[in-house]
Design goal:
By secondary structure, the chain is an alpha/beta fold. It has 13 helices and eight strands. It has two domains: 245 residues, TIM Barrel (Alpha-Beta Barrel), CATH 3.20.20; 100 residues, Up-down Bundle (Chorismate Mutase Domain, subunit A), CATH 1.20.59.10. The structure holds phosphoenolpyruvate and manganese (II) ion.
């Protein structure tokens, strides 16, 4: 059984940064009574702009060692340089994590992975700041290929321009879901603190992560969050974490409840037949596209016709509203359909061009 799947949810908690020995030990004492699985604290902090607190470095590693020895609690720190790895290993750190700003850089990730060859250690890889599943998967694979036995992913959300959703980092759920599909054995932990950026939204995001089948949660915890030297707005107290965990509903993928299982089976069959209809209809629609390609070719019309596309988008979105489908959802689907339709029509033209050249 993987370390990160020893219990569900697997809880990683602790301050954003190790600030003082007292702050670290007070937090750990409180968290030890809650029964978390892993104690976190950043000792080298990747700050967006210079001039803010950049961590206490080696000095703080000694505080974490004290936490480990006093509470028999495994500890984790972020590493971004090979020198960080050497120092963390020297202090008996149990798990290393790679931050979002490091995961984006394959050269650096490879250097870190190479430094871990032959080392018995566990690694958690945060998603890159950019919404790129391949880049995240690639970083994970670099550690796996270097022989790291236990690797987990951490979903901490993605940077975007502005914050339309009110989150600090956009969750973009399809990305962790796709990673899970590609790597079913990989444990994935959600970090609601860095996604929301706001302490009063952490609990709802943690619940959502559980409902999305995540294996665990990483939650930033501080004795006096407002005084924190980094990420003050999103940290919660150990007592708030205790309440959050007590209120968390942990649902399972499968149920022993036969009636629930049968109802689900029935609904899935209905859904399967709707999906067949959708595919059949899309096939028919694309056949029409090809015929339209022939007509446009014969009459010398452009394949893409902006006025028609505007009309399609407007009417489909309007009709979809009566089915309670969101404008964004329907527009995204029609963009794909229209794109494919154009591609098919262009293929008809290209075929015609080839024929004339012969
Ligand atoms: C952190 O966990 O405190 C941190 C710096 O995270 P991220 O890499 O997700 O920004
Ligand atoms: Mn933080």
């Amino acid at each position: 059984m993987s370390f990160f799947r020893s219990v569900r949810p697997f809880i990683v908690a602790g301050p954003c940064s190790a600030e003082t020995r007292e702050q670290v030990l007070v937090t750990a004492a409180a968290l030890a009574t809650i029964g978390i699985q892993l104690f976190r604290a950043g000792v080298w902090k990747p700050r967006t702009r210079p001039g803010s607190f950049e961590g206490s470095g080696i000095e703080a590693l000694a505080w974490l060692k004290e936490v480990k020895d006093t509470y028999q609690l495994p500890v984790t720190v972020e590493v971004a340089e090979t020198a960080h790895i050497e120092q963390a290993l020297a202090y008996g750190i149990d798990v290393l994590w790679v931050g979002a700003r490091t995961t984006v850089n394959p050269f650096q990730v490879q250097r870190l992975a190479d430094a871990l060859r032959g080392v018995d250690i566990k690694v958690m890889v945060k998603n890159p700041v950019s919404p790129d599943t391949d880049l995240w998967q690639g970083a994970i694979e670099r550690f796996e290929q270097a022989g790291v036995q236990e690797v987990a992913a951490i979903h901490r959300g993605f940077s975007g321009y502005g914050s339309a959703t009110g989150y600090r980092n956009q969750p973009n759920w399809p990305i962790p879901i796709e990673l899970k599909r590609r790597k079913p054995e990989l444990p994935i932990i959600c970090d609601p603190s860095h996604i929301t950026g706001k302490r009063d939204r952490v609990a709802e995001m943690a619940q959502k992560a559980m409902d999305m089948h995540f294996d665990g949660l990483m939650i930033e915890t501080h004795p006096t969050p407002d005084d924190a030297w980094s990420d003050a707005a999103q940290q919660i107290t150990p007592q708030q974490l205790k309440d959050l965990l007590a209120g968390l509903i942990v649902r399972e993928e499968y149920t022993q409840d036969m009636s629930g299982q049968m109802q689900l089976e029935y609904l899935r069959q209905l859904m399967d037949s709707i999906d067949t209809e959708i595919t059949d209809l899309l096939g028919k629609r694309m056949e029409l596209s090809e015929q339209m390609g022939e007509v446009k070719k014969a009459s010398n019309m452009t394949i893409y016709q902006p006025a028609r596309w505007r009309e399609i988008l407007e009417t489909r979105v309007e009709h979809a509203a009566s089915r309670h489908l969101s404008k964004e959802f329907v527009a995204a689907i029609y963009e794909q359909i229209h794109h494919e339709s154009i591609r098919k029509q262009l293929a008809v033209l290209e075929e015609a061009t080839k024929q004339t050249k012969k």
